[in-house]
Amino acid sequence: CDATKAACLALANGVKVAEDIDKLRVGQIVTTATLPYVSIPTTLSAGEYTAYAGITDERIPRKEVLWDMSIAPNVVILDAAMTEATPSRLFFGTGIRAVDHAVETWCSINVTPLTEATSLHALRILPRALARAKSKPEDLTNRLNCLIGAWLSVQGVSTGVDLGASHGIGHVLGGTAGMPHGETSCVMLPHVLRFNESVNSKRQAALAEAMGDANITAADQIQTLVSDLDLPGRLRDCDVPRELLPTIAEESMHDMWIPTNPRSISGPADVLPLLEAAW
């Protein structure tokens, strides 16, 4: 969906070569996209509900974000049968990305009452639906519940609620280290939650309860879910070389969602220990 969003914006602004993408960056004045389209999601990353488009600038390389209200789909159709052919690792990896949307918007520095409701309900749905879809992949009810949970999880993002370091670092892991979109959340979200716990422990306790067990931290529950879904839990499992970690820490500071992390991140020296723990 992000490729279609970027293509619609590029078409409206006469972008014909990669270098002209610079015209579309956030902060530039762009011509509104007018090409209508329908989205039928086959994964759980929920990009179809937002006006953001993630792209990779291969000159750096770094994953960056384009934004314009005109690039969201005109219609989204949820059809669980369309997810049956999605590779398991991709489907469930993006499911953890949806969990990440819910977690980081619930913990956001500018969370809204509406987002609190949708994010928390998403976390009541997603862990159970993902586990059931894993054990019974042919059951379309479980897959539909995953799609509904993903939709709920991203409502905060679609209305301007800021995310945090799991997404910020994840963008760089995707662009610089080539990690798949969802798997960055599998690895980084538990570590970011533990890093932030000193400033939002009460909010994290609500997450833990919504996920099913108030006596186990949200970070630990997410880490267990990642393992149960046969997804990678460490950077080394995703073939990220350890010597690349300082570069990733440096590049992360350019992401829009590092400054909005609940616990202040002042520089690469704060990011590197997170990456080391995740490696």
> β content, as a range?
5-15%
The main sheet comes to: 2 strands, parallel
Arrangement of strands in the largest sheet: 1-4
- Helicity, in percent? 40-55%
CATH topology of the largest domain: Dehydroquinate synthase-like, alpha domain
Beta strands, count: 4
Number of helices: 10
- Please write the CATH class name of the largest domain: Mainly Alpha
The CATH H-level superfamily of the largest domain is Dehydroquinate synthase-like - alpha domain
- Sequence of secondary-structure elements: HEEEEHHHHHHHHH
Total domain count:
2
Give the class from helix and strand content and strand pairing: mainly alpha
Computed over alpha carbons, the radius of gyration is: 18 Å
Please give a handful of descriptors for the protein shown.
279 residues, mainly alpha, Dehydroquinate synthase-like, alpha domain, 2 domains, two-stranded antiparallel ribbon, 10 helices, 4 strands, 52% helix, 6% strand
